[in-house]
Amino acid sequence: MQPQAFYQVVADDFLAVDEIIKRQLTSRVPLVEKIADYITSAGGKRLRPLLVLLCGKALGKEGDQLRLLAAIIEFLHTATLLHDDVVDMSGMRRGRATANAQWGNAPSVLVGDFLYSRSFEMMVELGSMPVMQILSQATRIIAEGEVLQLSKVRDASTTEATYMEVIRGKTAMLFEASTHSAAMLAGASAEQAEALRVFGDHLGIAFQLMDDLLDYRGDAESLGKNVGDDLAEGKPTLPLIHAMREGTPAQAELVRKAIQQGGSQDLEGIRAAVEAAGSLDYTARLANDFAERAINCLDALPAGEYRQALIELTRFAVARST
Fold first, then answer.
1. Region for residue 301 given its phi and psi (left: phi exceeds 0; alpha: psi -120 to 50; beta: otherwise)
2. Given this model, what pLDDT does residue 1 score?
3. Residue 93, helix vs strand vs coil
4. Of 38, 221, 222, 311, which is least surrounded by CB within 10 A?
5. Does the keyword Lipid metabolism apply (predicted)?
C-alpha cells in the first residue's frame, strides 16, 4: 500500500471532514476566521482524523458522527499547534510562516482558545459522554505534557524516562484519544477499545521518536521546519539523552553544553556526535519497536482494508523522512 493509499480507503469521508472543518470555522470576528483558516489549510498529514476514520470504519461505524469526531480531533490538534508555536517561538511550520510569525503571539493564543472552545461545542453536538470524557482528559494531559517539557528545557540531567513521559503526554495522548474515542463511538467491545487505545499510544510514541530523530537527520526543505529547532530551544530529546549516556566523554560534554546554552551554533558538531554515539540508530530502533507493538494491537480488529490501512500507516510513520 503506497503512502497515499491509506487515505484513499476513506477519501469520501476525508472530503466530508474538510467540509465540516470549513463550516465550523465561521466566526463573526474576521481575524479569527483568517488565522484559523490559515492554519487548518496549511496541509499536513492529518493523521489523527485519519486514525478516527480508519478505526471507526474498521469496527463498522459509518456516517456523520464519525466524520464529526474526526473534525473535532483536528480542531484539538490545530489548537495545540497554535499554542506550541507561541511557546516554542517557532517561525516556520509545514514549510511556511507560523501564525504567530504572521500575526503575533496574542492573536495566535486566542485563536487557539477559539478552536479548543469550538471543539467542545462540537463534542456536545456529538452527544457521547464516553467520547467527551476521553477528549477532555486528553486535553488536560497534553497541557501537562507541554508544561513538563517546558520545565525540562536546558536541563541536561533529563532522563529517558522523563523524556518518554513528555512525549506520551504532548504527542501520543492525542493519537491515543483519536483511536480510543473512535472505538467508543463505534460501540467496540472492552477488549477492542483497550487494544485501540494502546495502539494509538504506541503509534504516537513511534511518531514522535521519528520526529526527534529527523531533527538531526532530516533537511529543512523536506521537513517543513528548521533542522535543529529542538536543539536551538534547549530541548533534551532522546538522541541527545542517549549521546550523553552512551557517547564518549567529549561527545557527552558537547551535547550537555549545547542543551544548557540553547541555540544551534554547533549543529553540525552535535549531529556528528549523536550519529557517532549510535544515538540516532537507538532512537530509530525504539521507534520501530513501538510501531511493531502498535501493529500487534490491531489483531483485535476484524480483517479487511481498514485494518490493513492502519498497519501500513503505522509502518509509514516510522519509515518517513518528513
1. beta
2. 47
3. strand
4. 221
5. no
Predicted local distance difference test score (pLDDT) of residue 320: 83
For residues 320 and 116, what is the distance between their CA atoms, to the nearest angstrom? 29
CA distances from residue 266 to 213, 226, 255, 259 in whole angstroms, order as listed: 17, 15, 10, 11
Q: Which domain holds residue 314?
A: 5-319
CA distance linking residue 196 with residue 180, whole number of Å: 6
Joined together, the cell numbers standing for residue 83 give 499554542
Which pLDDT value is given to residue 151? Answer: 97
C-alpha span between 260 and 190 (Å, rounded): 46
For 41-51, write each residue's pLDDT tens digit.
Answer: 877 789 999 99
Range in 114-123, 196-205, 259-268 the model is least confident about? 259-268
Mapped onto helix, strand or coil, the DSSP state of residue 96 is: strand
CA distance 306 to 175: 17
Q: From CA 243, how far away is CA 236, in angstroms rounded? A: 11
Distance (Å, rounded) from C-alpha 138 to C-alpha 174?
Answer: 7
How confident is the model over 146-175, as pLDDT tens digits? 999 999 999 999 999 999 999 999 999 999
| Domains contained in the chain, number | 1
CATH of the domain at 250: 1.10.600.10
